[in-house]
Write a structure and sequence with these properties.
The complex is a heterodimer of chains A (266) and B (344). Chain A has 266 residues and is mainly α. Chain A has helices spanning 4-17, 34-56, 58-64, 66-79, 94-99, 108-124, 163-169, 178-181, 205-215, 219-230, 236-245, 260-265; strands at 27-28, 147-150, 155-159, 187-194, 197-203, 249-253. Chain A folds into 2 domains: 1-125, no CATH class; 128-266, no CATH class. Chain A has 12 helices and 6 strands. In chain A, α9 (205-215) packs antiparallel against α10 (219-230).
Chain lengths: 266, 344
């Protein structure tokens, strides 16, 4: 008789491999074939985790057709099963997995759109802190280069493909001309949670760099320098007003250390 | 993050599982429901559902039902997951906490299903150790749920009911009796469902689950699938009646996880559970009174399905069901041996 840990390992592999590697004589199921009953667990695992992935990647499903998505998901589940029971964390590796599928090599927008959808799933599971307003800091001395803290749900994604256009086009039912929706055009996307939905906006290079620097805690001076380096016409006031207006600022503090050297070195 | 108020105690009445499609309606309507049960794993992040639950728990007593701790894993508990469960309990202060007699983690993989154990002394020692760890961490008694199974292990040295009774004796845990699981396992593995319920330590049962199941035919094998995707079927209501008759009222949950219907359907099912419990207790009280007064000539007058065939669902439950019914859904009342009559 196998020790329980060995038995469970063998059974887990049988469930994931979709083939009976466990000895039938160890199982019983009344008058039924126990290996046929084992397939119920195989199907439960595959179908429930496929449903999880379909819920996280709905636009990707539509891009590749549901049957192909189910096939890809099934392979992903077999090779990369969840490592933990928080299913909100399952699927992080799926975009990379899609990128490596030969059949999709002429549709790079599929994996890129999946990357956007994973960022949306992450944002939906992130906290939404109270947003601060510019007026709150009218009489506060924040020094020359304060730190600006942003919503933890903020995700910034840059792609060579028109992922936001594709994602937006698939938000409504109806027949889409698949190929007119995606083109090789760089898109920089900012997204964050607003209540139980996500807001997505396109940014230019300078504003993307500005928010990217702030998100990584590099301070206002660094963020402004990066933005100006990319676009000498970068309008800091407009960027700040927009940042507060989007509800993205959760705190503004006087900088504890100078960030000026760090960005020049980067 | 925790709001200052006293946690609400769960009554021995029916509640519903809180599912994401219903959260907005629960927040705006605040319908009458005895209590709510959440899947703990769905509230380990920081999404909008977590914020909603902070509000709802001020109105409804709460039960936290874990589905991913894998108490039966021979490799031990995932300490990170256990800590996340502790934080959920700390934050939402549920009145009940429950998990499963099952395993779902092995070989570094989480299978997202509840798999059966080989019921023997080795497994009992492992599960008891894991339950001890869980209860010590949460600093509370935890209810352990019986499993729905499609197969068993040939080398088991005891049955599931004996295993659960031994687990209660060894750890002091409570039990969550899932009546639908009993029906599913008893059918699939060919044992007596009522005998299973009767073999459990009654005083340990702190909660009951009710749900629907699917029936699949594969060749000559008819297998019940625990899909939580339909109304509680008559055979499960009958088994619930047996359980309540034996145990008395218990907090009872209507579970519905796939093809989740409109909220009113769940509320209607919960109301039906309450009415059935009330009828059983009423009949028991009447019978006791008769025994006291007319012991020699008393004839049992409890209602039977045969003599009260026109009894229908309670009005509100029927209304809720009718509002939500799809053409394929039958509105026929469950065929119960005893049905509470509103006029009784």
């Amino acid at each position: 008789m196998l020790p329980l840990e060995h038995l469970q390992t063998t059974m887990a592999r049988a469930v994931l491999a979709m083939e009976p590697t466990i000895a039938a004589k160890t199982l019983t199921a009344g008058k039924a074939d126990p290996l046929a009953r084992l397939r119920i667990y195989q199907n439960n695992t595959r179908s429930s985790l496929t449903a999880v992935l379909m819920a996280v990647f709905p636009v990707t499903v539509r891009l590749v057709d549901e049957r192909f998505f189910r096939f890809a998901a099934s392979e992903f589940i077999r090779r990369h099963p969840p490592a933990e029971s928080r299913l909100a964390r399952y699927g992080a590796g799926f975009p990379r997995f899609l990128k490596a599928i030969d059949t999709l090599s002429d549709m790079p927008v599929v994996a890129e759109t999946a990357r956007l959808e994973w960022a949306i799933a992450e944002a939906l599971d992130a906290p939404a802190l109270p947003a601060r307003t510019l007026a709150e800091y009218e009489n506060t001395d924040l020094g020359l280069s304060p730190d600006i803290l942003l919503q933890p749900s903020l995700r910034l994604i840059v792609s060579h493909w028109s992922i936001l256009s594709v994602w937006t086009a698939h938000q409504h039912d109806g027949v889409l001309d698949q190929h007119s929706a995606w083109t090789r055009r760089p898109e920089r996307v900012a997204l964050w949670r607003a209540g139980d939905t996500v807001r997505l906006v396109l940014l230019d290079r300078a504003n993307f760099a500005f928010r990217h620097s702030l998100k990584h805690g590099l301070g206002l001076e660094h963020a402004t320098g990066r933005a100006l380096a990319l676009d000498p016409g970068f309008d800091l006031v407009s960027a700040l007003v927009r940042l507060f207006g989007d509800g993205l600022v959760t705190d503004v503090r006087a900088a504890t250390t100078s960030h000026s050297n760090s960005w020049r070195q980067s | 993050m925790s709001t200052i108020f006293s946690p609400l105690a769960i009554p021995a009445s029916a509640g519903i599982g809180l599912r994401s499609p219903h959260i907005a309606e629960m927040l705006t309507r605040r319908p009458s429901a005895g209590w709510l049960e959440i899947h703990a794993e769905n509230y380990m992040g920081d999404g909008a559902g977590v914020e909603a639950l902070e509000t709802l728990r001020q109105t409804y007593p709460l039960s936290a039902h874990g589905v991913g701790l894998s108490l039966g894993s021979a490799g031990g508990l995932d300490r990170d997951h256990l800590e996340r469960l502790r934080k959920v309990c700390q934050r939402f202060e549920p009145d009940l906490v429950s998990e499963h007699l099952a395993w779902s983690v092995a070989d570094g993989a989480y299978l997202n299903d509840l798999l059966p154990l080989r019921y023997d002394e080795e497994a009992l020692a492992i599960v008891a150790r894991n339950v001890d760890t869980l209860q010590d961490t949460l600093k509370r008694r935890v209810l352990i749920e019986n499993l729905s199974a499609y197969l068993a292990f040939a080398d088991s040295s005891m049955d599931e009911a004996e295993f659960l009774a031994a687990l209660v004796a060894r750890t002091g845990c409570g039990l969550l009796l899932d009546v639908n699981n009993v029906q599913v396992s008893a059918h699939n593995l060919q044992y007596d469902a009522k005998a299973f319920i009767d073999a459990l330590p009654q005083e340990a049962i702190g909660e009951i689950h009710l749900a629907g199941h699917a029936t699949n035919h594969v060749g000559t094998d008819t297998v019940l699938i625990d899909d939580h995707g339909s109304r509680v079927p008559p055979v499960v209501w009958a088994l619930y009646q047996h359980a309540i008759d034996r145990l008395g009222p218990r907090p009872t949950l209507i579970e519905w996880d796939t093809d989740v219907p409109v909220l009113d359907v769940l509320l209607g099912e919960a109301m039906w559970a309450d009415m059935l419990t009330a009828s059983i207790m009423f009949n028991r009280k009447q019978a006791a009174r008769r025994d006291q007064t007319t012991e020699a000539r008393a004839r049992p007058s409890s209602l039977s399905f045969e003599c009260e065939a026109t009894t229908s669902m309670p009005v509100l439950a029927a209304f809720a069901a009718a509002r939500a019914a799809k053409p394929s859904v039958s509105l026929a009342p469950p065929s119960l041996e005893e049905i509470y009559h509103a006029a009784a």
